[in-house]
């Protein structure tokens, strides 16, 4: 079983981590996970197996607000700018979008795409690593989406396109 929850770290001492759920939904998810662990323990005891709990994997990360979507959102603003540059240059939408992400990655510190082992994914040609691939826009935080919007304005300026 796998679960995600936003928690506050209350303490970490003597190799013991104490957390507190941040809201009711996360409290419920954590309670369900703990109950799952108890059920596995009881099942192992009744089957005569080792009753020890198996280790769990705990991934910690900073909480970042996801990009905004919907009317008047960062997502709409970004895609609107991509559309204007597309019309002005005659390039297709995905080409323009990728070039904006590439520019943001190389010039503004926009994140690179990573695999499940947290390794950067690179474009490879003729067995040569060319450059990293930018992260997907759907995975952006609000800060990262701002970098894409800024990059769209920079690309527009480079091309002599006035953007709203």
* Total beta-strand segments: 4
Quaternary form? single chain
Q: Beta-strand percentage?
A: 5-15%
Instruction: Give, in spatial order, the strands making up the sheet with the most strands.
Output: 1-2
Order of helices and strands: EEHHHEEH
Number of domains: 2
Structural class: alpha+beta
Molecular shape: elongated
Share of helical residues: 40-55%
Distance between the termini: 48 Å
Please, what is the average pLDDT?
A: 88
Number of helices: 4
Q: What's the story with the biggest beta sheet?
A: 2 strands, antiparallel
**C-alpha Rg (nearest Å):** 23 Å
Q: Unreliable stretches, pLDDT < 50, 5 or more residues?
A: none
Q: Care to give the gist of this entry?
A:
With 164 residues, the chain is an alpha+beta fold. It is built from 4 helices and 4 strands; from the N terminus they run ββαααββα. The chain folds into 2 domains: 1-63, no CATH class; 74-158, no CATH class.
Please give the structural blueprint.
Blueprint: E1 7-13, E2 16-21, H1 24-46, H2 74-89, H3 93-108, E3 122-125, E4 128-132, H4 142-158
Antiparallel strand pairs: 1-2, 3-4
């Amino acid at each position: 079983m796998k679960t995600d929850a936003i928690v506050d770290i209350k303490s970490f001492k003597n190799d013991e981590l104490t957390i507190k759920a941040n809201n009711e939904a996360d409290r419920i998810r954590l309670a369900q996970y703990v109950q799952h662990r108890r059920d596995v323990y009881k099942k192992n005891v009744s089957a005569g197996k080792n009753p020890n709990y198996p280790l769990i994997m705990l991934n910690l990360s900073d909480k970042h607000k996801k990009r905004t979507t919907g009317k008047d959102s960062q997502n709409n603003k970004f895609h609107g700018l991509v559309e204007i540059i597309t019309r002005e240059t005659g390039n297709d939408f995905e080409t323009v979008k990728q070039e904006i992400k590439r520019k943001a990655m190389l010039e503004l510190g926009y994140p690179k795409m990573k695999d499940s082992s947290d390794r950067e994914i690179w474009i490879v040609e003729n067995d040569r690593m060319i450059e990293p691939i930018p992260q997907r826009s759907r995975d952006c935080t609000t800060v990262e989406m701002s970098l894409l919007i800024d990059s769209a304005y920079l690309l527009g300026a480079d091309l002599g396109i006035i953007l709203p």
